[in-house]
Amino acid sequence: MSAKKGAGGVPVQLLLEAEQHKVTVEMKNSEIYRGLLISSEETMNVSLTDVILTARDGRVSKLHAVYLRGSNIRFIVLPDVLRDAPLFNKVRKMKKTMEEKVGTGFGGGGSKRKRTV
Prior knowledge:
The chain is an alpha+beta fold. Helices cover 24% and strands 32% of the residues. The protein has a five-stranded antiparallel β-sheet with strand order 4-3-2-1-5. A hairpin with a 5-residue loop joins β2 and β3 (46-54).
């Protein structure tokens, strides 16, 4: 069950964009899952198929499908093809706007008052 497009923040939206692509998920217990991202949720829960599991001790297993709980995920490696996703262009524009605001509004060397005692 996928979350609705537009729901959640940027990380959730990016995860939705990654559906139907190969991803790598590292869990907090150091297990690594690599497979096709079938679905994701706002809670960062993900479903993968055609999975290769690398256990903490280095053993490798093949699994047909897994469901990973978002609260146990350390990070997710997304495919390079998402660099060109429209969402990233939106984020780049937001970042540039914020940098411009911060650059002109703060720390730009305003007037200094002398302190009298």
